[in-house]
Write a structure and sequence with these properties.
Blueprint (H helix, E strand, L loop, with lengths): L4 E5 L3 H10 L5 E5 L12 H12 L6
Parallel strand pairs: 1-2
């Protein structure tokens, strides 16, 4: 529903795929992760920051 606000716990591949799947169908998406950055097991800090900036430009919050 377009009025729903969604919180996704985990900024790994699965969490980001969930965000991608619901993008545009809900009011807002917020992603949180204990590591403090996205894709921590795949990307270094610079890559994580670049990807986070791109995803934030789509309206997803971290």
């Amino acid at each position: 529903n377009k009025e729903s606000r969604v919180l996704i716990i985990g900024a790994g591949l699965i969490g980001l795929k969930c965000a991608e799947g619901i993008y545009g169908r809900v009011k807002s998406i917020t992603v949180v992760d204990m590591a403090g950055r996205i894709l921590p097991s795949i990307l270094d800090e610079d890559g994580s920051a670049m990807m986070e900036k791109h995803i934030e430009s789509k309206g997803v919050r971290f």
